[in-house]
Automatic annotation (TrEMBL):
The lineage of its organism: Bacteria, Pseudomonadati, Pseudomonadota, Betaproteobacteria, Burkholderiales. Its EC number is 3.2.2.27. It is an enzyme of class 3 (hydrolase). Keywords: 4Fe-4S, DNA damage, DNA repair, Hydrolase, Iron, Iron-sulfur, Metal-binding. InterPro entries: UDG_Type-4/5, Ura-DNA_glyco_family4, Uracil-DNA_glycosylase-like, Uracil-DNA_glycosylase-like_sf. The keyword Acetylation does not apply. It holds the Pfam family UDG. It comes from the Bacteria. Gene3D superfamilies: Uracil-DNA glycosylase-like domain. It catalyses: Hydrolyzes single-stranded DNA or mismatched double-stranded DNA and polynucleotides, releasing free uracil. GO terms for molecular function: 4 iron, 4 sulfur cluster binding; metal ion binding; uracil DNA N-glycosylase activity. Residues 100-251 form the Uracil-DNA glycosylase-like domain. This is Type-4 uracil-DNA glycosylase.
């Protein structure tokens, strides 16, 4: 595929080096095969000692999230205020700020859902600031999107709005409490494609407990919207060799957006 001058500049800022043939406007060779992801085994379940055998309960199907009465009917500014005062789960007890997200003020083409915020973003009350945020902005621009300015086309929000303590993964009840907010954001923004950044966001939205490498490269569905999974920008700063794979994911999201 040949890239125009703007796209080549954006890709260069992402740290993805195009071959010389591609920079001259000639079709570029295929990207190198991405290395197999590192799979971290889950810890063994705790052993529960009981005095007598207990009958196994049948697993209950997870219900589809519905909009809580306190969030239904709110516009985007009012929803932001409601989230800042939310006490829907225990994460509110230790947060400094609830991180609502930011970007397009009305309809968005892309809804970008990230892993929980880090300590710096919790302190600032903003999602993906610092170097990781600057990398995300370059990634979005390379894909023809933006989360800043009056013509913003993307909205970026964390999978849970309050940072879990000590950086632990959010618990199911915490994810459930925040998914009703995310569902209302979808109703208001009406995105055409969802991009999940990072393993925790990807697993929650796909409903699959697989390594990130196995969730990438295909189009999933969440709330009847196409969903594409990719690496979190903070991970890409630590592992720049995977930026080529992230670019493949962005291209997949672009093709999905262009599909009638």
């Amino acid at each position: 595929m040949a890239w125009d001058a703007r796209q080549r500049a954006m890709l260069a800022e992402m740290g993805f080096r195009l071959p010389a043939a591609s920079q001259a406007g000639v079709a570029e060779p295929e990207a190198e095969v991405e290395p197999d992801p590192i799979v971290v085994a889950a810890p063994p379940p705790a052993v529960v000692r009981v005095s007598a055998p207990m009958p196994a309960a049948a697993p209950a199907a997870a219900p589809r999230p519905v909009i809580a009465a306190s969030f239904a009917g709110l516009d985007l500014p009012a929803l932001r205020e409601a989230v800042s005062a939310c006490r829907g789960c225990g994460l509110c007890a230790q947060r400094r700020h609830a991180v609502f997200g930011g970007g397009a003020l009305q309809r968005a083409q892309w809804l970008v859902v990230t892993d929980p915020v880090d300590d710096a973003d919790d302190a600032a009350g903003e999602v993906l600031g610092g170097e990781a945020g600057r990398l995300l902005d370059r990634m979005l621009l390379a894909a023809g999107q933006s989360r800043t300015g009056e013509a913003a086309t993307a909205f970026v929000t964390p999978i849970v709005k309050c940072r879990p303590p000590r950086g632990r993964p959010p618990q199911p009840a915490e994810l459930d409490a925040c998914e009703v907010v995310l569902a209302r954001q979808v109703e208001l923004l009406q995105p055409r494609v969802v991009l999940a950044l990072g393993l925790q966001a990807a697993r929650r939205l796909t409903g699959l407990a697989e390594p990130l490498g196995r969730l990438r490269g295909r189009v999933h569905s969440w709330r009847e919207l196409p969903l594409v999974v990719t690496y979190h920008p903070a991970y890409l700063l630590r592992s720049p060799a995977d930026k080529a794979g992230a670019w493949d994911d962005l291209c997949l999201a672009r093709r999905t957006l262009q599909t009638p």
